[in-house]
Amino acid sequence: VQLQASGGGLVQAGGSLRLSCTASGRTVTLGWFRQAPGKERESVAAIRGGTGHVHYADSVKGRFTISRDNAKNTAYLQMNNLKPEDTAVYYCAASSRYYIVSHFYKSDAMDYWGKGTQVTVSS
After folding, report:
1. Which residues pair with 83 in a beta bridge?
2. Residue 36: pLDDT over 90
3. Is pLDDT at 49 greater than 90 in this prediction?
4. Is there a contact between 96 and 1 (Cβ–Cβ < 8 Å)?
5. pLDDT score at 25
6. Which of 28, 45, 59, 78 can bridge 65 by disulfide, Cβ–Cβ 3.0-4.6 Å?
7. Coil vs helix vs strand at 86
């Protein structure tokens, strides 16, 4: 499975961006991770197929929304009220297996990774 991400860019604080991630094959979970300079990669949001479970990092709850279009094998990350601390390289990832709710969004649950897309939020 290959993942194609798009939608990054430069935006002012308070602005919005939408990231898209299209998978070339079947996936169970689609998720977004990010890595800022000098920081570890962290899970941002994930959505699991079937049950539709979603998970958000505490830092983005209420501002980011993840959704998926199964017919298009695509996940979207709508990012609103962006803050400078959201600046990072964002990576799309996918899993082909089902995991329990407490694990499905974690990086070690992912089988496939896309190339990163830069999101820069200016103050």
Report:
1. none
2. yes
3. no
4. yes
5. 94
6. 78
7. helix
